[in-house]
Write a structure and sequence with these properties.
Shape: globular
Order of helices and strands: EEEEHEHHEHEEEEEEHEHHHH
CATH superfamily of the largest domain: Ribonuclease Z/Hydroxyacylglutathione hydrolase-like
Radius of gyration: 19 Å
Strand content: 15-25%
CATH topology of the largest domain: Metallo-beta-lactamase, Chain A
Number of domains: 2
Distance between the termini: 62 Å
CATH architecture of the largest domain: 4-Layer Sandwich
Largest sheet: 6 strands, mixed
Structural class: alpha/beta
Number of helices: 9
Length: about 280
Amino acid sequence: MSQIQIHTHTAGEGGLLVNAYLVEVAAGLVAVDTGLLNSDIAALDSRVEALGKPLLAVFVSHAHPDHFNGTHALVKDRAVPVYATAAVAAAIHEVADAKREQWGPVYGAEWPTRTTYPTHELADGAEVNIEGLSISVRDVGAAESHADSYLVARQPGCEPVAFVGDLAFAGTHPYTADGHTGRWLTVLDRLAAELARVPRLLPGHGGPTTPAVIADQRRYLMFYREVVRRLLDGRSELDEAARAELDRQMQAFLPGAPLSWMVRLGADAVSAEIVAEGDGARAA
């Protein structure tokens, strides 16, 4: 079987190496996630123009700005539906302004000034048909973010492909600072079963991969959580020395991988998870 035709724009490290995808069908293009920074968003928009086909739809996998920030630029001059699960749409409405307030001063002109929100909210298992391309969406709840989903695209005569958002990072350190790593592990078990027969997975960060990436992500999270648990050693939070040791051990676990600064970024959130689970701090 042939492959669905997909074009990828990958941001530089300043843009978190995030992938934005354009699925090409005879009648046009379908975008899956839209980038973080204006320079990368403009490059994605230029790619749409260069392909010479109309943009037919946008899908957003989850409510992190590196996946929804570019939606406005892509659709502002086009009558294009924007799809997301109801939970993802609600989370984008909840966080977009706060994220702009937090990061706008840091990134300056690179941070978009406007947000376009999903216009079509999808239930778990919903299927959207666009010019012979079928895209089904699965709502998995909180995992890497506060509301996650993944998409499976199918086209006659082609192998199916899954867009897994940030449920599995391929070869990069993941973001853990939303503090749902315990539930994320449960979601990964679900994905391992549901995507076992999908030969190609396209992650939010990293290159095209296979369902084996799900087990890789699971091992990373389990190791991260165990290191945090050991370093807490009865305390409620990590001190600076413990943070440095966490960073050292995770970089040894995934040597040379980019986005290594995310290791420390998630330390507080994962520590709070472990303590809340009753495994980190001993009773006084």
